[in-house]
């Protein structure tokens, strides 16, 4: 593992005894795209601000390339920020905005011009240097804000919900561009968002946050497939979350039946929650079904139908299906064992990882035999 | 019907607003000595005005006091607005604002009388100095009020961004804050200037025998009755205000148009 | 370190607050407890509250200020309203403000000419058959000129309040079936009331203290609080009594401010 570029160790932040961050530990490696994901008020922007240097931490250490930087002011840190409202200086032109940081450093003029031109080129606004900020569209302002930050050649770029003010189409386009930019620059991006789709699409690693804590971290696939608790399962993607009970390793009961699953290491008879993603459910005849549900209503989403249904016990089900169903009819649903994910109540990330370790190695040994 | 009534009403109001001023100016060209019957065109009153050394000295005094006091008031007021804007406690901020506004809402006579007591107690001689100080004093709050909204418009993230890009506190002030609030500073200076030129009551209280401004001079002459030289003076002053307003309006329109054009280029 | 530096910026402004805001107010209150012989006394206040002349003068002054404010408001609201419907309203508003840049004394002086024995007003009265009247140096002429001078200061805040009014409210009111008048009375006027209050503040308090107008136009028949203060300070040199009247004026001012200032324009807590 390379030397981490940013580390937060036991970082706590309180405003008048009101905790904003509770014992945050996170490590960012060079050259990766990280995302802090969580609902508004969960503390993700505060983490960004502690790294940028706008906010002091109450306890804990902020490290940059192994050096403690708690006392280093924002203007001396080698990280730069792209702000949510872009924070472009309205009294300067585009080029003056981008050049701002370099002029403060008393960089020679020819070099400033060269680097500003490069930065504008990079965000595809090469000809816009003389424009007034007020003459730019939201998307263009967004790019200028990025250019202004990357022209400083920071080792870490912090992005505070930079896409939230853009319309849906532009936002998707910018997701590609940001990802592409990060790979070309090869620096660390730390991206803050409350939009799970954005996080899943762009990140190497996601930190899911709620109420000042990091609940789970991992690759987008890990987090999507194996959410640690109800909150994460609910917050990321659409999901059916059902109450159930562990029968044995790889056996779980819910909806009045017992099913094979892919989880183990949980005490027998422990109440658990089961997550099934709507796209993993398949409609079928009631005879071949694992469960039977009654269709309540459905919405056409373009590439699929979103079907709401209820089972015998009154649990609500959300199903994504390529084919429509008829309202009010009883249909069967089926799924594969690995599509089920069992969650224990109150399990922490470390415990979850440890448990996974035990039976995944078991898996391998079993495969070998 | 309604439209017509609105128009007629507005025309009437504008007539009332401008009739006295036009009346003054028309008679400034009258050959008579009173404002009763027009006696034919003459430049005579303007000639009298421009050869009246006392009056010209007073005009110079008035302009000097106005410019000097506005400059100083703008400086102090801007610093004041910056410090008020920096306060984080709501109570401190509100009390500072209340104190700031005391001179804005106080009647002129109260300001004049209290300053007179103040200068007398400190044994400051009445004259140019006391008038200048008084003008600075009553101009400061309007500068603060013109600068503060601009400071509030400044988003916190803009300041963060400047710091993020490496600006020190001083660079923050000189390269971001002051340029950003400069429209407010100019507006404050402009308002201070008009306050100074317009003031009569405060100056009347704190001016001694040797020093006079235009307002005080007009008052003492008007008390002696009609003198068409004053009409000529008002003609000149009206022209002066027209130029100021015209310039102000033109600058506003020009900057608006410029922005507009730039937007069109993009879309 | 930066904290200490920024405190330096506060020094000139802080000095101004102390010397020219707090000290003068304190001094005028202090002075009101001294008589002509520089002796500490309550006699100024007892004289004031026992003298029919002073009390009547105060009442008169308040009454005149009220009338001036009322007339100014009655003229200004429709003006601001109609003005706001015009196409180049900012330009027309500028034309309303322009006369305020003409020195107030020049405007008063103009009325000396207009209201004089053979002036424009009397020529008009003669023309319509009423015949010349004594206009100058009457209470009516004082109120007229004061109203004239104050009109722009009332139009401006009302115009701004109308400008702040979201047109969607008017449309919503129409949509819900209100007539023009009902829309005005139940939506537009209540929402622009803060503008009217600001106008009242801007007009009423100065009207209590317009001493130059009472001298030039009112012919010393109208004595306002302002006139009385000026007289005590600059003519009879009885600063103690002048300060006492000043304190009364300050109290009147505070009353007006609290009466008209209860509504927070924006961001206030809902009541």
From TrEMBL, chain A:
PROSITE patterns in the record: ABC_TRANSPORTER_1 (PS00211), ABC_TRANSPORTER_2 (PS50893)
Entry-linked SMART domains: AAA
Superkingdom of origin organism: Bacteria
Any one cellular-component term (Gene Ontology): ATP-binding cassette (ABC) transporter complex
Keywords, ordered alphabetically: ATP-binding, Cell membrane, Membrane, Nucleotide-binding, Translocase, Transport
EC number: 7.6.2.11
Any GO molecular function: ABC-type putrescine transporter activity
Aminoacyl-tRNA synthetase recorded as keyword: no
Alphabetical list of NCBIfam families matching this protein: potA
Oligomer status and interactors: The complex is composed of two ATP-binding proteins (PotA), two transmembrane proteins (PotB and PotC) and a solute-binding protein (PotD).
Entry function: Part of the ABC transporter complex PotABCD involved in spermidine/putrescine import. Responsible for energy coupling to the transport system.
Protein name in the entry: Spermidine/putrescine import ATP-binding protein PotA
Organism (species): Levilactobacillus suantsaiihabitans
UniProtKB/TrEMBL annotation, chain B:
PROSITE patterns with a match to the protein in the record: ABC_TM1
UniProt entry tagged with the keyword DNA-binding: no
CDD domains: TM_PBP2
Family: Belongs to the binding-protein-dependent transport system permease family. CysTW subfamily.
Name of the featured protein: ABC transporter permease
Domain ABC transmembrane type-1: 59-249
Source superkingdom: Bacteria
Short name of one Pfam family: BPD_transp_1
UniProt membrane topology term: Multi-pass membrane protein
């Amino acid at each position: 593992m390379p030397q981490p570029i940013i580390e937060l160790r036991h970082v706590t932040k309180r405003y008048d005894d009101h905790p904003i961050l509770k014992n945050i530990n996170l490590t960012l490696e060079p050259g990766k795209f990280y995302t802090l994901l969580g609902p508004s008020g969960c503390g993700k922007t505060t983490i960004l601000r502690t790294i940028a240097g706008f906010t002091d931490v109450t306890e804990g250490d902020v490290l940059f390339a192994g050096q403690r930087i708690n006392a280093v002011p924002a203007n001396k840190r080698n990280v730069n920020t792209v702000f949510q409202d872009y924070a472009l200086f309205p009294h300067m032109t585009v080029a003056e905005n981008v050049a701002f940081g370099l002029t403060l450093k008393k960089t020679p003029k020819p070099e400033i011009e060269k680097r500003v031109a490069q930065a504008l080129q990079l965000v595809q606004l090469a000809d816009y240097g003389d424009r007034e900020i007020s003459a730019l569209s939201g998307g263009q302002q967004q790019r200028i804000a990025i250019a202004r930050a990357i022209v400083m050649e920071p080792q870490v770029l912090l992005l505070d919900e930079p896409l939230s003010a853009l319309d849906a189409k532009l936002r998707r386009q910018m997701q590609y561009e940001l990802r592409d930019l990060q790979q070309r620059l090869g620096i660390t991006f730390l991206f803050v968002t409350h939009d799970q789709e954005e996080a899943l699409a762009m990140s190497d690693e996601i930190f899911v946050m709620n109420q000042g804590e990091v609940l789970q971290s991992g690759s987008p696939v890990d987090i999507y497939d194996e959410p640690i608790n109800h909150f994460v399962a609910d917050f990321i993607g659409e999901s059916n979350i059902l109450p159930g009970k562990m029968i044995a390793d790889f056996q779980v009961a819910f909806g009045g039946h017992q099913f094979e699953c892919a989880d183990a290491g949980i005490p027998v008879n422990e109440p658990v929650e089961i997550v099934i993603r709507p796209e993993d459910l398949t409609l079928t005849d009631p005879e071949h079904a694992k469960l039977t549900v009654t269709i309540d209503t459905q919405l056409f989403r373009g590439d699929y139908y979103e079907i709401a249904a209820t089972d015998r016990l009154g649990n609500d089900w959300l199903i994504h299906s390529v084919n429509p169903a008829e309202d009010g009819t009883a249909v069967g649903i089926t799924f594969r064992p690995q599509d089920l994910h069992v969650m224990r109540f109150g399990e922490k990330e470390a415990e979850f990882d440890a448990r996974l370790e035990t039976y995944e190695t078991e898996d391998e040994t079993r495969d070998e035999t | 019907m309604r439209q017509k009534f609105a128009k007629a009403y507005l025309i009437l109001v504008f007539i009332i607003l401008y009739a006295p001023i036009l009346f003054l100016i028309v008679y400034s060209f009258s050959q008579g000595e009173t404002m009763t019957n027009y006696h034919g065109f003459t430049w005579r009153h303007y000639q009298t005005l421009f050869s009246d050394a006392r009056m010209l000295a007073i005009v110079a005094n008035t302009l000097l006091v106005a410019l000097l006091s506005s400059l100083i008031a703008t400086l102090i007021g801007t610093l004041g607005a910056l410090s008020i804007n920096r306060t984080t406690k709501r109570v401190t901020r509100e009390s500072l604002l209340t104190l700031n506004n005391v001179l804005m809402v106080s009647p002129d006579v109260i300001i004049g009388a209290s300053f007179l007591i103040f200068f007398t107690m400190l044994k400051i001689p009445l004259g140019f100095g006391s008038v200048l100080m008084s003008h600075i004093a009553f101009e400061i709050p309007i500068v603060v009020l013109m600068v503060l909204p601009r400071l509030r418009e400044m988003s916190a993230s803009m300041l963060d961004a400047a710091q993020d890009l490496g600006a020190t506190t001083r660079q923050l002030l000189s390269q971001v804050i002051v340029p950003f609030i400069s429209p407010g500073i100019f507006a404050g200076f402009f308002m201070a200037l008009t306050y100074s030129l317009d003031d009569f009551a405060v100056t009347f209280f704190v001016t001694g025998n040797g020093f006079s401004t235009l307002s005080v001079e007009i008052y003492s002459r008007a008390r002696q009755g009609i003198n068409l030289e004053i009409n000529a003076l008002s003609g000149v002053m009206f022209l002066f205000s027209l130029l100021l307003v015209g310039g102000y309006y033109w600058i506003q329109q020009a900057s608006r148009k410029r922005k507009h054009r730039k937007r069109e280029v993009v879309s | 370190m930066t904290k200490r530096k920024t405190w330096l910026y506060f020094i000139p402004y802080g000095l101004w607050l102390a010397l020219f805001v707090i000290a003068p107010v304190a001094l005028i209150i202090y002075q009101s407890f001294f008589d002509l012989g520089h002796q500490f006394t309550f006699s100024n206040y007892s004289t004031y509250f026992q003298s029919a002349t002073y009390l009547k003068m105060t009442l008169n002054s308040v009454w005149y200020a009220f009338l001036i404010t009322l007339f100014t408001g009655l003229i200004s609201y429709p003006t601001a309203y109609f003005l706001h419907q015009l196409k180049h309203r900012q330009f027309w508003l500028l034309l309303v403000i322009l006369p305020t840049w003409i020195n107030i004394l020049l405007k008063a002086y103009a009325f000396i000419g207009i209201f004089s024995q053979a002036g424009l007003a009397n020529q008009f009265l003669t023309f319509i058959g009423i015949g010349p009247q004594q206009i100058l140096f009457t209470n009516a002429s004082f109120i007229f000129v004061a109203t004239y001078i104050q009109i722009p200061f009332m139009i401006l805040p009302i115009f701004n309040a109308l400008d702040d009014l979201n047109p969607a409210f008017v449309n919503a009111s129409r949509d819900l079936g209100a007539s023009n008048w009902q829309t005005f009375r139940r939506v537009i006027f209540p929402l622009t009331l803060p503008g009217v209050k600001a106008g009242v503040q801007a007009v009423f308090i100065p009207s209590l203290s317009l001493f130059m107008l009472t001298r030039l136009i009112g012919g010393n028949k109208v004595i306002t609080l302002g006139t009385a203060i000026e007289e005590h300070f600059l003519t009879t040199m009885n600063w103690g009594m002048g300060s006492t009247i000043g304190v009364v004026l300050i109290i009147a001012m505070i009353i007006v401010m609290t009466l008209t200032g209860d509504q927070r324009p924006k961001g206030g807590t809902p009541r």
